[in-house]
TrEMBL record:
It comes from Labilithrix luteola. It is a multi-pass membrane protein. The keyword Membrane applies. The lineage of its organism: Bacteria, Pseudomonadati, Myxococcota, Polyangia, Polyangiales. This is Dolichol-P-glucose synthetase. GO terms for cellular component: plasma membrane. It is found in: Cell membrane. Keywords: Cell membrane, Membrane, Transmembrane, Transmembrane helix. The chain crosses the membrane at residues 45-63, 116-143, 155-175, 222-244, 250-272, 284-305.
Amino acid sequence: MATGIRKQRIAVVTVGLLASAAFMYLAVRRLDFGSLRSVLASARIWPWVPLGILSYVGGHVLRGQRCRLLVSKDASLGLGTASNVVVVGYASNNVFPARLGEFVRAGMLAERTGMPVAQSLVVTFIERVFDGLAILVLLVLGTLSGNAPPWMHELVRVALVVFGSACAVMVLGAHSPSFVVTAASRIGTKLGEKWHDRLVALATSITSAGACLRSPRDAISIALYSLLIWTLEAGLFIALLPAFGLPLRFATGAVAMSVTNLGLLVPSSPGFVGPFHFFCSRAVMASGVAEATALGYATVVHLAFFVPVTLWGAGAMLWYGVQVGATAAMARAARKEAKTTLVQGIQVHEVASLPRVRVEETTTPFVRALVEAVVVPEGTQASTAVIDDTAVFVYGQLRELPPSLGLLFECGMTFFRFVTRLRYLRGYCNLSLDTRRRWLHAWAESPYALFRKLMKPIRGVALLGYYDHPITRASILESPEALLAPASLVRGKELDTKTAAEAQS
């Protein structure tokens, strides 16, 4: 058994080294090394390399935030911990061949969160699917000029098939968990009890990993994070163009980044030496850059890609090892001192205090700001407790929308917030109540039907929750003229006194 595993490892390493050697040969077979030395000697490092590294490192911090969101249904990770987990995976890919760093990362994520390793691997798979789709979007944007060679268009088609198929599998696992578990159970039944339990456990891990994708809001956030992550990585490739006297063009950098990362899917040696240089230089050469300049550019980009993340990952692994050692030392000390406590009648060794339990989100500041703008008429005040309770009610009702409607609503609200920031140069929550009220009513009373329909769920549910609140009902009984408040919410005109009296009756 051990001999077979050793042979498999040797085979993986051998294939990776051969692939790297082949790509490196293809990259330099017709190269003038004198020209390459001249290009590297004349490269302007400052300020372009630091700017590129800053953009690249920022992308890894966003990867940590995306990882937090992906595991948020099962665990609570800090941004620093999540970023370190991600970077350890990338650093391990720079040290181990054939992308074995993905398994290192999955193991560390499982240890940090308590999730099964299989679930951690599925989380990594989901990230890679979103990564592939984001890279594909940037590649298409970069080739819109129409100057791309035929092989690049073929690459787009192949990537679309691969990542489109993977996306379909991901969506099936996320939105049809019962189907996946049932299918695994039926297959396992035919294979025997031992395999049945394993397959059902694996299917459960797969569906649990995709739990965050069942929320339209979370799915949109993950997609946007992915697009921003790879835009920042493209920033590394874009920033280094002027260092070699090349024009600072988004299309050139985006294409170089996209082609390079799609090429790195090929198993290779540690650090992607060979494939990185070949695909990056060929992508830049497609825009008319000389071969020596393109390979010099690829060499410097690879160093900026390799060194910072490897150092960060090594530091994170060192700190991780210190934490694991400290935890083991506490456990030994607890056993040695026989420090015990009773938990539900069971005597256990007391090692350390437990982390704070994650509290389920009941509403958001944005929903509360919308509710306040809807239910508080101009010139009046409302109870803070009533506003808070109404916001919780509205948020709960919105979460119960069917996935398709929820997705459309989240898209609409994302557009609303984007337009608000463009209009006022600040977020909706940061506006004054009067401004929020006027802006919301402008959309609710817009001549465009889509804008009016977008605000209907918020207005209707908010008014229902507000006027059904015990405090509001009590105030109406004491002061019936409070019913005049909804008059300002009628589109186009105000209620007259007669209509208000009819409403009271």
